[in-house]
Amino acid sequence: MARTTEKRALRMGKTWAGPQRLERLVAALEGRQALLHRLGVAGSLIIVAVSLFFFARAIVGIDVRQFRAAIAGTGGDQIAGAFLLAGLSYLALTGYDALALRHLRAKTPYRLTALASFASYAISFTLGFPLITAGAVRYWIYGPAGLSAGKVASLTLIAGITFWLGMGLVVGVGLVSEAPAISEINHFHIAINQIFGLGVLALLAAYLAFVSQRGVKPILFHVRLPGPLLTLGQTALGVIDVCAAAGALYVLLPKGHGLAFVTFGALYSFACMLGIASHAPGGLGVFEATMLKTVPAESGSVLASLLLFRAIYYLTPFILAMALLGAHEAGRRWRSLREAIEKSSGADDE
Q1: Residue ranges of the domains in the chain?
Q2: Shortest CA distance to 322 belongs to which of 93, 90, 159, 120?
Q3: How far apart are alpha carbons 197 and 202 in whole angstroms?
Q4: DSSP secondary-structure letter at 258?
Q5: Tens digits of per-residue pLDDT, 302-317?
């Protein structure tokens, strides 16, 4: 009996070792924010410098006639498909806010949630610095609805985690399942790509175990994280968003590139990660340099696809978001003015 109890305790100790290590890692990271900030700035500068070097080399070697032919040769079905997939991606993004609001036990109408999520992402994707720009847009919309600045900051962090969970799963699965194809692109050994992929999947599993601990409230930067069920929902939404966004570019690529969608999804996610890490507005230059370097097709044709993708996934939603924000603010001010007039009229009648 004693041996059985001891074995059970050892098994439990092994089971909980992973989450406990992750908890200690989170605490250590929180205690070294200044150092991490310096490292982040240095890393961003290195990423930007290297990416600009490769981007400049790719631009110099582009055949202008080939570029124009690729633009002219893009079919209406490709553009329509890209718009549909971009719309699906932004629809999934509204779920980021919906899940975060549910976790924070804050209730707002879905139309307001959809506006706040769509506008915050459309603007932050274009301007960069998502924690600042997205947070500011959200507070502008959610503040009058009764959400405090603290809750909006928590919502922004939780929504950001949703994005990284989906992107991490796409990268991990792609590196493991499509390791031979990716090895032909990045020239790493197949086993190295698989190890990287398994490492990413292990981190995701550790995070899920971390938020699944019974009797413990997982906290990151003073924000209580969602539990296991909401985390799985976050991951599913993140995968839908990332795959739809990758699909919007995939359908615009020149024919004959030979990339399977899973392989391309992993490359696209990696390019997005580098773009975010660079802090360049919308990952501009960094994202393009990575895709030009990894997509096995003529640079002129790929650049044409990237420019169309920028127009469809970034520029169009940005313009629409600005218009919707203007209409929302005008409507809010008109309602305030009307209420003030009604109150004034009621006071005069008395």
Answers
A1: 21-332
A2: 120
A3: 9
A4: -
A5: 888 999 999 999 999 9
